[in-house]
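EI: anyone free to look at a 629-residue chain?
SC: sure, send it
EI:
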Amino acid sequence: MRLETSNHQMKKVAVIGAGLAGLVTMRELREDSHSVTCFELEDDVGGTFYCRDDKVGAYNDIHLTISNYFMSFSSHIPKDRKRRYWTGSEYLEYLHDFADKYSLKKFVRFKTEVLRISPLDSETWEVEFRNSAGEIKSEYFDAVAICSGKFRNPNIPNINGLDQFKGSIHHSYMYKTPEAFKGKDVVCLGVGESGSDIAHQISKVANTAHLLIKRPKSIVSRIIFGDTNDSRTTRAAHYSFIVSQSNLEASLKTRIVQRGIRHNENKRERPLSSIWMWKYLVKQGLHGEFTNKNDAFFQDIDFGRLQLHLTDVDYAVEDGLILKDGTKIPCTDIMLSTGYKTQFDLIDHPAAKEAAENIRNCFCHMIHPDLRDTMAWIGFTRPDVGGVPTCAELQARYFSSLLAKRNALLPDAQLREEIARLKHEEQDFYFYMEPNKSENVKYYVFTRYLARLLGVEPKWYRLILNPRLFYNFYFGSMVAAQFRLFGHGKNYKEAKEFVYRAGITKAPLSHLLFFIPLCAGLSALAPAFRFVARLFNLENLDVNQDSSFRTVQEILKNQWPGCKRFSGVDDNTNLVDLFDKTYELEGFKFFLQQRYGVHASVIGSGEVSVSSVNSHLAKGHYSEASATS
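SC: here you go
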C-alpha cells in the first residue's frame, strides 16, 4: 500500500483555517519546506477554541472530554506532568504555544475571508479572498488544505410545527452560558458531548429542564479507577475484548454487563441509578457508534433537576412539544444540541459536494480521487476514543509527504476500490448504528492505517530490547508520540520520554492491579476466540436478544434489574406506579419498545395498566420497524 518516491518538490500550499488542524498542517508542510499561506477569518489562531462572547465557538466553562495527553501533538509535548482534562482556555493557550514554537503565525493572514476556491487546471487552484482592508484579491496555489472544521453550519432538525412555537429556539452553536435560561422551562434535544454539558448547565438554573433523545447512546465516565477515561485507550485494550471487534463480542459484553447490573440491583432492592439504567439499555463495548465521554448530566437526572425522555418529537405547538408517546412538554425555550451540517460551498468542484455529503468518499477522510493530492480535508474526523489532534497530525504528515513525493497515491482504479472498502468497513460495521455520521473513525484502526502509509507505525519487535518502552507502548496510552519513534520525522528521544510519561507505570494502583492483568489475559484469549468466530461465521451473532417473555410480570422477574421490588404486580397495576423514579419508567418503556416492539403510543406517559401492555406483548409480533418508530 505504501508507495515511495524520492523526487522532492516544494509546493505552494493554501491552508484554510488556523484552528488545531490548520496549525498542525502548517507545521508539517513547513517541515517539508513547502511554501504556506493560511487564511483565517478571525484575528487570532485557535479556531473553535478561540472563545469570545461575540463569537460562535466553544462555550464558556468548557472542559474537554479528552485528556491533555491525547489533545497534544507529537511535536509539542504538554508541560503537565499528570494526566488531566484541560479547559477550553488552557487548550487555546497550548495552541498558541505550539504556533509560537514553530513561528506559524507569520504565515497566517488574519481577518481574511475566503470567497471562492476554484481549479484553474489539474494542478493549480485559485483562491479568491477579501483581506482585512476589504479588498477582494486572488492568489494561485499548487495545493489546498481545507482545515476549517465542521462547526460552522448548525443542523436544525425538521420538526413539524416548529415555526408555530412561540418561545425561543436556541442552538448549541451560539451557546455560551446558561444565564439566559434562568427560571425558564427548557427542553434540550441531543446528547452529544457538548449537549451533555449544556443540559447539565441549564438544569442548574432552569425552572424545569427536560432532556429528549431518541435512544440512549454509549457513554463512558470521565473518571475510571481514579484516572481519566482515555488512560484505557491502549493497544492492550484494542487487542483484547475491552474494545469489541464484532457484534458477537459486543452482545456478549452486553449480556455480562446486564447480568452484573441485575445481580447487584436485586440485592439492593432499590431503584436503579440513572447511569446504571442507561448502561443496562445501551449496547456495550465501544462498537457500532461513537462513544460519548461526558457523563455530567446523570447526576442531574438522579437528583430530579433534569427529566429524561427516551423518545422522539412528534410535533411542536405554540407552548411546547408533543412527543411520539403522546406526552406534552410545556416549555418556553428549546435548546437544540443537534450537531452541524458539513458544507464546502466555497469550493467550485463537484468533489467538494461529495466530500460534504460523506467524508468517507475521500481516502482516509481526506483525499478525493478526482482531486488526488492537490486538495486535502484535514481534521474532519471524530475518533471513537483518543483525540482528533493525533488523527489530524497524521493526516497532515501524509498530505505533506504526498506533496514532497515521499509517498504516492495508488492508481485511480485501485484508489477508488480502497476507498469503497474502507467506507464499507466503517459505515456498515464499526459504526453501523450511526451510518450517516461519516466523520466517525475507529481511533486505533485509523491511526494505524495512516501510520503504515507513512512508514511510521511502531513495531513491537523493534521495542522488545527495551522492556520498559515495550511495556508502556503496549499497556500505556496510544498517544501521538508513539508515531515519532521510527520512520521519517522521528524524534526518538522525546517520543520515548512522553511514552514513558503517558505510560501505565504512572497509573493509579487500582489500574495497575486490575486493568493490566485483565487486558493481558484477554489479549491472550482474543485471537483464538476471533479465529473460531470467523471460522464458524459467528461474528454477527447477537446473543442478547431474548424476547421470549410475554407479560410485564415475566419481564420484570427475568430481565429487568431489581425484580424483588416488583413482587406484588398484577394486571390492574398502573405502569407508572411500578417505579419510584421517572427516569426508570422511561428506561422500562424504551426497553419494551426496543426488545418487544411495543409502540410508544401504547405505553404513552405510563398512565396505562399492566393488562393493556400484556395484551400487546401476547401478540408476539416483534419488529424492528415498530421498535424504532
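EI: The CA atoms of residues 10 and 543 lie 56 Å apart.
SC: 👍
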